[in-house]
Fold:
Amino acid sequence: AVLLTQPRQLAGQGGADPSQDVTAVATDMLRQLPEDFDLEVTLKRWPLTYEESMNTVLLQELTRFNRLTAIVRRSLAELLQAAQQVREVAAERLRGGERARAPERRDLPVVQAV
Structure:
Protein backbone atom coordinates (compact mmCIF):
# COMPACT_ATOMS: atom_id res chain seq x y z
CA ALA A 1 0.00 0.00 0.00
CA VAL A 2 2.87 2.36 0.73
CA LEU A 3 4.35 1.79 -2.71
CA LEU A 4 1.03 2.56 -4.37
CA THR A 5 1.18 6.09 -2.97
CA GLN A 6 4.63 6.72 -4.42
CA PRO A 7 5.34 8.01 -7.91
CA ARG A 8 6.07 5.25 -10.40
CA GLN A 9 9.67 6.36 -10.76
CA LEU A 10 10.35 6.02 -7.03
CA ALA A 11 8.44 2.76 -6.66
CA GLY A 12 10.34 1.17 -9.53
CA GLN A 13 13.87 2.20 -8.64
CA GLY A 14 14.67 -1.19 -7.20
CA GLY A 15 14.22 -2.84 -10.59
CA ALA A 16 11.76 -5.55 -11.50
CA ASP A 17 11.65 -6.96 -7.96
CA PRO A 18 9.01 -5.23 -5.83
CA SER A 19 10.26 -7.06 -2.73
CA GLN A 20 13.43 -4.96 -2.92
CA ASP A 21 11.32 -1.80 -2.88
CA VAL A 22 9.37 -3.09 0.12
CA THR A 23 12.62 -3.97 1.87
CA ALA A 24 14.02 -0.49 1.27
CA VAL A 25 10.89 1.25 2.57
CA ALA A 26 10.60 -1.02 5.63
CA THR A 27 14.28 -0.65 6.48
CA ASP A 28 14.03 3.12 6.21
CA MET A 29 10.95 3.15 8.45
CA LEU A 30 12.73 1.01 11.05
CA ARG A 31 15.70 3.35 10.98
CA GLN A 32 13.46 6.38 11.55
CA LEU A 33 11.50 4.93 14.47
CA PRO A 34 12.41 6.59 17.76
CA GLU A 35 13.78 4.62 20.69
CA ASP A 36 11.37 3.63 23.44
CA PHE A 37 10.88 6.14 26.21
CA ASP A 38 12.57 5.23 29.48
CA LEU A 39 9.66 5.08 31.93
CA GLU A 40 11.95 4.91 34.98
CA VAL A 41 13.58 8.20 34.08
CA THR A 42 10.13 9.68 33.45
CA LEU A 43 8.96 8.59 36.89
CA LYS A 44 12.00 10.14 38.54
CA ARG A 45 11.63 13.42 36.70
CA TRP A 46 7.83 13.64 36.96
CA PRO A 47 6.74 11.58 39.98
CA LEU A 48 3.18 10.38 40.32
CA THR A 49 1.62 12.56 42.99
CA TYR A 50 -1.89 13.67 43.77
CA GLU A 51 -0.99 17.32 43.14
CA GLU A 52 0.45 16.55 39.70
CA SER A 53 -2.20 14.36 38.12
CA MET A 54 -1.02 15.14 34.59
CA ASN A 55 2.12 13.15 35.36
CA THR A 56 -0.08 10.05 35.45
CA VAL A 57 -1.46 10.91 32.03
CA LEU A 58 2.06 11.45 30.71
CA LEU A 59 3.17 8.05 31.95
CA GLN A 60 0.10 6.36 30.46
CA GLU A 61 0.65 7.98 27.07
CA LEU A 62 4.35 7.12 27.02
CA THR A 63 3.47 3.52 27.84
CA ARG A 64 0.94 3.42 25.00
CA PHE A 65 3.46 4.96 22.62
CA ASN A 66 6.08 2.36 23.59
CA ARG A 67 3.58 -0.44 22.94
CA LEU A 68 2.65 1.03 19.57
CA THR A 69 6.25 1.40 18.41
CA ALA A 70 6.95 -2.18 19.55
CA ILE A 71 4.08 -3.42 17.37
CA VAL A 72 5.34 -1.36 14.42
CA ARG A 73 8.88 -2.70 14.86
CA ARG A 74 7.62 -6.29 15.05
CA SER A 75 5.41 -5.81 11.97
CA LEU A 76 8.24 -4.29 9.95
CA ALA A 77 10.57 -7.13 10.97
CA GLU A 78 7.96 -9.66 9.83
CA LEU A 79 7.55 -7.74 6.56
CA LEU A 80 11.30 -7.82 5.97
CA GLN A 81 11.36 -11.54 6.66
CA ALA A 82 8.47 -12.12 4.23
CA ALA A 83 10.17 -10.06 1.52
CA GLN A 84 13.33 -12.14 1.98
CA GLN A 85 11.31 -15.35 1.64
CA VAL A 86 9.68 -14.04 -1.54
CA ARG A 87 13.12 -13.36 -3.02
CA GLU A 88 14.31 -16.86 -2.03
CA VAL A 89 11.28 -18.54 -3.63
CA ALA A 90 11.72 -16.50 -6.81
CA ALA A 91 15.40 -17.42 -6.96
CA GLU A 92 14.52 -21.10 -6.49
CA ARG A 93 12.02 -20.95 -9.33
CA LEU A 94 14.57 -19.30 -11.60
CA ARG A 95 17.16 -21.96 -10.76
CA GLY A 96 14.60 -24.66 -11.48
CA GLY A 97 13.86 -23.18 -14.89
CA GLU A 98 10.47 -21.82 -13.89
CA ARG A 99 9.68 -18.28 -14.75
CA ALA A 100 8.76 -16.24 -11.69
CA ARG A 101 5.19 -15.04 -12.02
CA ALA A 102 2.56 -13.41 -9.90
CA PRO A 103 -0.08 -15.69 -8.41
CA GLU A 104 -3.31 -16.04 -10.35
CA ARG A 105 -5.96 -13.53 -9.51
CA ARG A 106 -9.17 -15.16 -8.39
CA ASP A 107 -12.13 -12.86 -8.27
CA LEU A 108 -15.35 -13.72 -6.57
CA PRO A 109 -18.06 -14.92 -8.93
CA VAL A 110 -20.56 -12.29 -9.94
CA VAL A 111 -24.15 -13.18 -9.13
CA GLN A 112 -26.44 -12.14 -11.93
CA ALA A 113 -30.22 -11.99 -11.92
CA VAL A 114 -31.89 -14.78 -13.88
In short: Helices lie at 8-11, 18-32, 39-45, 54-95. The chain has a mean pLDDT of 83. Residues 19 and 84 are 8 Å apart (CA to CA).
